[in-house]
Write a structure and sequence with these properties.
179 residues; mainly alpha; 2 domains; 59% helix; elongated
Length: 179
């Protein structure tokens, strides 16, 4: 049986090596001068926040594809942005344990892509006045604020994800864990 090991070289480059089972994992890693890293708590929280955001954006956009809402000149792009944000959250989740800072960058970008649709659902009339001045709607947006569960929860989830991503930027270089 052949073992595949992902590790970091002393110069910081990620590498993948293949070892035969007879040599043993520890011996193979030591022979190749690699350092294995255990995911830190920051990576775990970052990944959990991305999972939460994936779930929340899917709930927020569920049922809107293929409707008049998705074809609108204002609402269509908002829905497309939220769909792109979902895909970017998935990408960020996949990158979290390999390249945490790149994942954080992707996470912040996808967080910003979610915000307009949430704001539209929470405050449709102020949003329309701000971005659709002078345009007539087939049905007028309702005035006031509408504190519906999925848009508000998505805003909170995106805030958590952004917090963990920004925290990742503030950390010094990734520190390998030795045992």
């Amino acid at each position: 049986m052949i073992l595949t090991v992902h590790g970091v070289q002393p110069d910081g480059l990620l590498t993948t090596v293949t070892c035969e089972e007879q040599t043993g994992l520890q011996e193979c890693v030591q022979r190749r001068n690699l350092k294995l890293r255990k995911p830190d708590a920051g990576q775990a929280f970052q990944a959990a926040s991305f999972l939460l955001c994936i779930y929340l954006t899917l709930q927020l956009t569920k049922g809107w594809d293929g409707t008049e809402f998705s074809g609108g000149w204002l609402t269509g792009p908002l829905l497309t942005m939220a769909d792109i944000a979902t895909l970017l959250f998935i990408l960020a989740l996949a990158l979290t344990f390999l390249l945490p800072r790149v994942a954080a960058t992707v996470g912040v970008a996808s967080s910003f892509l979610c915000l307009p649709l949430c704001c539209f659902f929470i405050a449709p009339l102020p949003f329309a006045h701000l971005f659709a001045r002078g345009i007539e709607f087939s049905s007028q947006p309702m005035p006031g604020f509408h504190w519906r569960m999925w848009p508000v929860t998505t805003l909170v989830g995106v805030a958590f994800a952004s917090y963990f991503c920004i925290r990742r930027f503030g950390m010094s270089g990734s520190k390998p864990t030795t045992h």
